[in-house]
Predict the structure.
Amino acid sequence: MADDDYCANDRAPGPPSGGPQPTDGPPFAECVLCRKPTEYPESHKGITLCPVCEWQEAQRTACSG
């Protein structure tokens, strides 16, 4: 078994996409990868990711070690 197969087989499905989007509250920052609204306000400093991209980034990080 190759190292690439190990992470691919253990990968859990990500959160469902197309869920309800925030409609009220402060203006939300855009995801730097897919441009969808995030859970962070526009004033948040640093990289902002939507929940889906945040989950995918965590999966990549977990499998890269």
